[in-house]
Amino acid sequence: MLSIQKGVRGLAGMVTAPASKPHTQRALVTGALARSGTSTVTNAAWSRETRLLLAGLNQFGATSTVDGDRASITVDPDAASASPIRKVDVAGSAFTLRVLGVLAAVSGGTTHFRATRGMMNRPVAKHLGALTHQLGAVLSTYGTDSEYAISIKGRGRRCDQQATHVIDTVDSSQLVTALMLSAPFISEELRMRAATRRVVGAPYIALTREVLGALGVSTGLAHSAQHGWEWSAAAEPGGYPASAYQIATDFTSITYFAVVAAAGEAGKHEVVVKNFTLSGLESEDLFFRAIAKLGIGAVYDPDELTLRLRRTGYPSEPVVIDGSDVPTAVTSLAAIAAYSRGAVTVVNCGHVNNHKTRRVELIVETLARMGFDICEVRDHRGAVIGFHTEPLNGAPRGGIVIGDDGDHRILLPAMAAAVGASNPVGFSDLHSLIDSFPEFVEQLEALGAVVDRTQTSS
Ligand SMILES: O=C(O)C1=C[C@@H](OP(=O)(O)O)[C@@H](O)[C@H](O)C1
Ligand SMILES: C=C(OP(=O)(O)O)C(=O)O
């Protein structure tokens, strides 16, 4: 348990952010799926999720060494690429399960995965099962009180599939990414189609295409009235060329610093993120544009590699933001909106409720308990599609204890929001910090937050 409150010197200072988790994940996967040779990943983001992914890839036959923030992954073409002998632990990471799940489907034997029980409530195994079936594999699941077990009987590493794979994209973009990443073991001309009209998380599919493009894989995206969204990937059978990857800064971690800037005073406080490199994700750009509407300026200096975040003012009119393509930033946007002294509505982000927790509902509940004026927005059928905030009279009162729901995307923005509250906010469990930003508490202190660790137990 620790508590967070505003320090006397206000909210300003210099911080650093971790490297990008999605970029690191893709580099680790394509490095491990090289035909042969050693790939290096420099400035890798080490968190529980990326370490588990690398451990899983090693179980599929890659060999890796980690030295500080650098990983070297070696693929020996003579080593048997059999299925893992031991259970592969994916914990609460749907990305890891989806990507390694497709890899298991195109492997020779049966792979057993272990996930947290929370994974049972997410639309992961259902859609992964439908996809692996199309690949000629069989998925089965088994839930106990302590874990969720998923087994996939693979069909072997062949590159001869002619079919167009139909993928559910209404809940997550990650299956398209997962399938595309395994392209060298599926088809020389891999074809995919979205099962429905709606595709969530499209910027992350674009990121996958960008990573594959740099490896010489030509990918395509098309949309037609008859077929909806379609993707293709033409990869050389047998794997990717080994490569050297340099990982950019994690844009989602920046969103927590933007919450701190939102809690600061206009024209007075500035959060400077040093060693910042733009990730190029469309979500990053969309996020900066959204916070500009809420009175938060983000100025990037590519020579100094600094990003300066500060409150420039407050919106003078009601603001509506489309949250479709900023899935990881929705919970931070809620806190920034809640500090914006205006009426703000964020819509089209109900899919974020398919993530580690029902994120939209949980962030609304958490911020409301802190004293913000925020509520859910529902569609005509009653489904949550976003949230709405109203101006606050003064600072939120704080003075509560926030428990752990195991979701870093709730904990981190809530900690950042706590720095502007009138009373300290307690956090009883910090375990989920290690999923993406283990050093966050120290970074908050660097910005002037007062952290009381006297009751720390985790
Ligand atoms: O491919 C990726 O790296 C991700 C895709 C998105 O997932 P969804 O499409 O499931 O939202 C995003 O929210 C997640 O944090 C990372
Ligand atoms: C990508 C994330 O999670 P998942 O892979 O579990 O959807 C996340 O929480 O950042």
Description of the molecule:
This protein is an alpha/beta fold and 458 residues long. Helices cover 29% and strands 26% of the residues. It is built from twelve helices and 24 strands. It has helices at 21-32, 48-59, 94-105, 125-134, 174-181, 202-214, 251-263, 282-293, 330-338, 359-370, 408-418, 440-446, and strands spanning 2-6, 13-16, 37-42, 63-67, 70-75, 88-91, 110-115, 138-143, 148-153, 164-167, 190-194, 218-224, 228-234, 244-246, 271-274, 296-301, 306-311, 319-322, 344-347, 374-378, 384-389, 401-402, 425-427, 449-452. Helix 9 (330-338) links the parallel strand 18 and strand 19. Helix 7 (251-263) packs parallel to helix 11 (408-418) and helix 9 runs parallel beside helix 10. The structure holds shikimate-3-phosphate and phosphoenolpyruvate. Phosphoenolpyruvate (PEP) binds at residues 92-95, 328, 355-356, 409.
